[in-house]
Write a structure and sequence with these properties.
Layout lengths: L2 H13 L3 H12 L2 E2 H5 L6 H13 L3 E6 L2 E6 L1 H31 L7
Amino acid sequence: MGETDEDMVDAMFRALSDRTRRDIMRRVLRGEHSVSALARNYDMSFAAVQKHVRVLEQAGLVTKRRSGREQLASGDVTAVRSLATVLDDLEELWRGRIDRIDQLLAREDPSKED
């Protein structure tokens, strides 16, 4: 991954570090929603929800389009898959380390103690 890819991954994880934004992501991954419809789900101002959607959009996780006076938000499945790939790579790294530790422990002779 190049530096710009890493920057984008950082932005995605930062965007998803907030529970409201994670909830918005769940909703927009199920289907397109107007920002005003999303705002009705939260105990905060329309402007606050709009800001959350903007953060998700800037991170590449959400796309928006206009339909008349409404802004419609959709989740970007490709972006979410790229995050899943990053997490899979990290899991593979740690599983490899755990396997090596298990192999080292299995090689130790339990009858030899200091």
